[in-house]
Amino acid sequence: MSIPPAAPTIHGKLVDKQSRCEHWHGPLDVIALKLKCCNKYYTCYECHNELESHPISKYNIAEPHVNLIVCGVCNHEMSFDSYASELKCPRCSAPFNPGCKLHYDMYFYKGDK
């Protein structure tokens, strides 16, 4: 019998167990994003900036096989492409906030840098 992998730790000023935080806590705010600087999943850049002493370093979303998003409902980790393709979790179908696309540049870049 194999042991299932541990759920990823979600960092931030959490207000519930589905990754909502003090800054973003609407019904669709159920993801956390991995930041390259600390290799941690954070609920939002504001939580990161308030809790860490270093600036944000971003992942390149052109790397399709790197898990950068975690669903706060079921803890499923996914690539940026998997997350952005449908704006719902591929495992549990929890809908994601479509407004998050306005902030992608706070977390990720695409191409050479």
From TrEMBL:
SUPFAM superfamilies: CHY zinc finger-like. GO terms for cellular component: mitochondrial intermembrane space. Residues 14-94 form the CHY-type domain. One of its GO terms (molecular function) is zinc ion binding. Pfam families: zf-CHY. One of its GO terms (biological process) is protein import into mitochondrial intermembrane space. The keyword Metal-binding applies. This is Helper of Tim protein 13. It comes from Kluyveromyces marxianus (strain DMKU3-1042 / BCC 29191 / NBRC 104275) (Yeast).
